[in-house]
Amino acid sequence: MSDDELKSPTSGWDIHCHTRFSDGTESPATLVSQGKALGLHGVGIADHDTWNGWPEAEAAAKEQRFPLIRGTEITSSVDHTSVHVLGFLYDPANEGLAAMFRRTREAREDRVREMVERISRDYPQITWEAVQRQIGEGNQTTVGRPHIADALVAAGICSDREEAFSTVVSSRSKYYVPVPSPTPAEVTQTVKKAGGAVVVAHVGDRSRNKRLLPDERLEELIDAGLDGIEVYHRGNLPDQRERLLGIARRHHLVVTGGSDWHGKGKPNPLGENLTSDEMVRRLAEGCYLPILRP
Ligand SMILES: [Zn+2]
Ligand SMILES: [Zn+2]
Predict the structure, then answer these.
(1) How would you write the pLDDT of the chain (294 residues) with one tens digit per residue?
(2) Architecture of 3-107+182-284 per CATH?
(3) How far is the CA of 1 from the centre of ligand 1 (A)?
(4) Which of 15, 38, 11 is nearest to 201 (CA)?
(5) How far apart are CA 126 and CA 121, in angstroms?
(6) Which residue in 5, 71, 109, 273 could disulfide with 232, CB within 3.0 to 4.6 Å?
(7) 40 CA distance to ligand 2 middle (Å)
(8) Separation of 27 CA from ligand 1 center, angstroms?
(9) What's the CA-to-centroid distance between 47 and ligand 1, angstroms?
(10) 201 C-alpha to center of ligand 1: Å?
């Protein structure tokens, strides 16, 4: 494989972006306007375990006449390995999917409350109220560890989210509580039943998991209906990109790229990794929802 093949396309779509509806700091309208200003071909909203940001993103896309892909990044785990699954263009009214999001969001909130409880024994400023002040859209927002991190920054205990993630809210910290999640195969089947396309996100990122998902597990997901692999992501280093591209080619899967933009919540600039027009076309093929092209 040539070095060029391991690099993101230089033009196309950034289809992995977070807004205030999960742990991003900006609104869906800002995602659309920044994507347009950068000359991207379109953007994809992919907040954690919710589609609550879609209506705002759709309105902004129409107003600014800019293409939009509606998606969600879904939490899952298998063998103690955390796996993020991107579901795109599915039917948001699908009951099976709605029930899965409900369970995950409740589990995430319970776990954040439990972690806050543990942290507050050592840092009394870190209360549930202090964490809630960091949540962008109230009930509509999927609560997670980044919001605890933001409360730690606001209280002056950590200097930024990254420091919080390598100390107090780290998965190795004594305050850490794991979040019960569906398996990636369950998520894949559920999104497929809801008419969507499924892409496994940053699955070669060693900074997220000590143990990466092995090829056999990825092949199980392919059997469950996986459509694509996010190869171009800053967490996937060249050796992993090569491995993932090899699997994608063997199984004729869609290859995607995304910045995992979180506004000011992460250093990843919008558009730093992209998905080509051709791959976006293949991804959307046969999905319940079309790409919005106002
Ligand atoms: Zn992720
Ligand atoms: Zn993400």
Answers:
(1) 888 999 999 999 999 999 999 999 999 999 999 999 999 999 999 999 999 999 999 999 999 999 999 999 999 999 989 999 999 999 999 999 999 999 988 999 999 999 999 999 999 999 999 999 999 888 888 899 999 999 999 999 999 999 999 999 998 999 999 888 999 999 999 999 999 999 999 999 999 888 999 999 999 999 999 999 999 999 999 999 999 999 999 999 999 999 999 999 899 999 999 999 999 999 999 999 999 999
(2) Alpha-Beta Barrel (3.20)
(3) 26
(4) 15
(5) 9
(6) 273
(7) 18
(8) 18
(9) 9
(10) 6
